[in-house]
Amino acid sequence: EIVLTQSPGTLSLSPGERVTLSCRASQSVSNNYLAWYQQKPGQAPTLLIYGASSRATGIPDRFSGSGSGTDFTLNIRRLEPEDFAVYYCHQYGGSPRTFGQGTKLEIK
Amino acid sequence: EVQLVESGGGLVKPGESLRITCAASGFMFRSYNMNWVRQAPGKGLEWVASITSNNGHISYADSVRGRFTISRDNARSSLYLQMNSLSAEDTAVYFCARERQLLWHIDYWGQGTLVTVSS
């Protein structure tokens, strides 16, 4: 099973700042099948990025993903108030599918 | 518009069974692989089970294998999860999730149904 480790666990930032979230896999993710989701309290996750770097439909271009192999990042430039949420990385290249433990982005 | 609506959650006692349902609409259900993903209160996401579009391949997480059964009825555009021998560790919101054709990532999620296992 591929274990995904996200860092940091919590980030306190202000609107307008730039942020980089990290996701490290215990082994190489096949075909860079790595996705990022945003989840707000009481809501279902929303797809942001798939295939490590492809932005999902309707996602603002301030969100970008990069990385390959075992190291992946989600970048958000110019944080908006609605971006404060929990972010999960998810690998679907190996069986079973696994998720990272999440990074909580909170308003400073 | 893609819609996934889960139902059937509730409070059950340890050892009991429950079946939850996901009603799909807004897309050709029979053409998509589907998944169940759960989230314990205050915790992260855990993949539970998946089923291919034609029922040809089914997979389970180790934590539920032998106790849970995923199934689907393409004629009714519905996905099911039969959960037996439930324990407190199964308490979670259960999400129905669609897999994008040929790209394999989960692209749509339902709002979830809460299953609480407690005596």
Describe the structure.
The complex is a heterodimer of chains A (108) and B (119). In chain A, the strands form 2 sheets. In chain A, strands 2, 4, 5, 6, 9, 10 and 11 form a 7-stranded mixed sheet that branches. Chain A is mainly β and 108 residues long. Helix content of chain A is 0%, strand content 49%. Chain A is built from no helices and 11 strands. Chain A is globular, with a radius of gyration of 13 Å. Chain B is mainly beta and 119 residues long. Chain B is built from no helices and 11 strands. In chain B, the strands form 2 sheets. In chain B, strands 2, 4, 5, 6, 9, 10 and 11 form a 7-stranded mixed sheet that branches. Chain B starts with a strand and ends with a strand. The mean pLDDT of chain B is 97. Chains A and B meet through strand 5 and strand 10 of A and strand 5 and strand 10 of B.
Instruction: Report the order of strands and helices of chain B.
Output: EEEEEEEEEEE
What's the gyration radius of chain B in Å?
13 Å
Distance between the termini of chain A: 36 Å
Annotation field: number of helices of chain A: 0
Strand content of chain A: over 45%
> What's the story with the biggest beta sheet of chain B?
7 strands, mixed
Ranges of chain B where pLDDT stays below 50 over 5 or more residues in a row are none
Global geometry of chain B: globular
Mean pLDDT of chain B: 97
